[in-house]
């Protein structure tokens, strides 16, 4: 397994002070930004203008997670806004191969997310087109939900498919990741870990990032 990466989500940070909130986690590999449109998920966050401002405010690369209904039309805007990685949901994408290629052409890492009940097997052939697969370990929409253990076998199967195809695709988990659950995810084969409330409810968020990394590596 290569280098494990921690990508804190700012969803549960103070939205009135996002620049300062990101500055509290200098040890993060990426900053995970959850874009929600109130249609794909029943929650609304922010759009490309805010993401672009955030990208300008930090040297840490942004990892955009688009929980939106029309990624085919809108995802590339987040690459143009300066995100180093852009994740679209396969349940929403009409042409995931074309979309992944467009994202790469715009200089971003192309990533595809699956809700907890969406199987990975139908998308096996897409793996070479993708820089990362995100397996949701809660239903997307809100921070602070309980980790779904039922996704662990899918993490294992996704890792096995990546090994079979010999691809360098990263495997990210998002939802309910904490000191208690990160070890199970790493053991199953995940190598990129989103953590929202675990990081931003900690007294020292950057120390929590380090602790999560250490626990995942153990
Ligand atoms: C949920 C978002 C997550 C969220 C995770 O739909 O995609 O990134 O911020 O929050 P926690 O870590 O609290 O489950
Ligand atoms: Zn997310």
UniProtKB/TrEMBL annotation:
Record's cofactor remark: Binds 1 divalent metal cation per subunit.
Active site: 34, 174
Protein residues bound to a divalent metal cation: 32, 34, 65, 174
InterPro entries: Aldolase_TIM (IPR013785), Ribul_P_3_epim (IPR026019), Ribul_P_3_epim-like (IPR000056), RibuloseP-bd_barrel (IPR011060)
Signal sequence coordinates: none
UniProt cofactor(s): Mn(2+); a divalent metal cation; Co(2+); Fe(2+)
Pathway named in the protein's UniProt entry: Carbohydrate degradation
Pfam families assigned: Ribul_P_3_epim (PF00834)
Catalytic function, reaction form: D-ribulose 5-phosphate = D-xylulose 5-phosphate
GO molecular function, one term: D-ribulose-phosphate 3-epimerase activity
EC number annotated for this UniProt entry: 5.1.3.1
Record keywords: Carbohydrate metabolism, Isomerase, Metal-binding
Annotated HAMAP family: RPE
NCBIfam families per UniProt: PRK05581.1-4, rpe
Protein name per its UniProtKB record: Ribulose-phosphate 3-epimerase
Organism the protein comes from: Nocardioides oceani
Taxonomic lineage: Bacteria, Bacillati, Actinomycetota, Actinomycetes, Propionibacteriales
Gene symbol of the encoding locus: rpe
